[in-house]
Amino acid sequence: MQEHRSVQGSFDLHTHSVYSDGSQSVQALIAEARERGLSGIAITDHDSLRQLSSVRAEARKMGFPVIAGVEASCIDSETGRKIHILCYGLAATADESGPLELLVNETLARRTANTLWQAWTLERKGMAPCGRKASVADVVEVSRASTGVYKQHVMQALTGLGYRDGEYQCVYRRLFKNGGIAERDISYPDALTVVRAAREQGGVPVLAHPQQMDSWGAIPELVKAGLMGIEAFHPDNDAVATEEAFRLARQYGIVCTGGSDYHGRYGAPECVGSCFITPDEAGESVAQLFDQERLLA
């Protein structure tokens, strides 16, 4: 890992757009990446491959290197802990019959149904935590560009506040956490199954933010299933976690990536490139991902 790091010429391989639970369009993400001096980004929206061709079309139009990827939600069946797998190098099938598509489409359908239930519950109870109410129709309108409906859309319709606002955090915890009236989760596919499906569909699966979800213990079995990388740089990875990610990458012969997990005003990171990996840290692996992406585009 380099001692003196610069965002200039580096890569942010973990961002989200309006196609899932981000507030920024693909065009806006690319414009911000250019302004920050990044050499390329990955747009890794949650649990859907339906947007990949649109992301690639926008990237071609703007002439900027973008990897169109996916962040798949899953679970460690041994511990019950959630795990997220970033998947690069994927192509969607015409009939959505790919092995990874079948898994993530089911997750997305469950999430959308659950979020709409949450919105309906809040509407039925007449909740107006910031002096305004939100109907299910309001939430659907906010989410219209997305492949699914997320709690971020509910919060936008209900509060109009950004994630980094203190009042937003209080409202979110009161409604969706600690026994709040809209607290309800969904089931997720097994992480090993997701990794195998990603590989079967031609993708490069990478373990996302291992410190955030304490997924270190799952790495040996994930590698056996076909895991090809680990996210070493992430806002929730401290220096010790980053060093551990590099150590594990050397031990298992997998690659390291890094990214901001930027969601625009719907998330904690303040900008594209707030977390990144440099070309020297990434080695040839990231260059190969962008080479592969050019073939898919």
Protein architecture, described:
41% of the residues lie in helices and 14% in strands. It has 297 residues and is of the alpha/beta class. The chain folds into two domains: 11-101 and 190-296, Metal-dependent hydrolases (TIM Barrel, Alpha-Beta Barrel), CATH 3.20.20; 107-176, no CATH class. α2 links the parallel β2 and β3.
CATH architecture type of the largest domain: Alpha-Beta Barrel
Global structural class: alpha/beta
CATH topology of the largest domain: TIM Barrel
**What is the strand tally?**
7
How many domains, as an integer?
A: 2
pLDDT < 50 runs, ≥5 residues? none
Report the helical percentage.
40-55%
Strand order of the largest sheet: 1-2-3-4-5-6-7
Briefly, what CATH class of the largest domain? Alpha Beta
What is the distance, rounded to the nearest whole angstrom, between the alpha carbons of the first and last residues?
31 Å
Radius of gyration: 19 Å
The ordered string of helix (H) and strand (E) elements is: EHEHEEHHHHHEHEHEHH
Give the integer mean of the pLDDT values.
97
Q: Give the CATH superfamily of the largest domain.
A: Metal-dependent hydrolases
Instruction: Please tally the helical runs, counting DSSP H or I stretches of 4 or more residues.
Output: 11
* Structural shape: globular
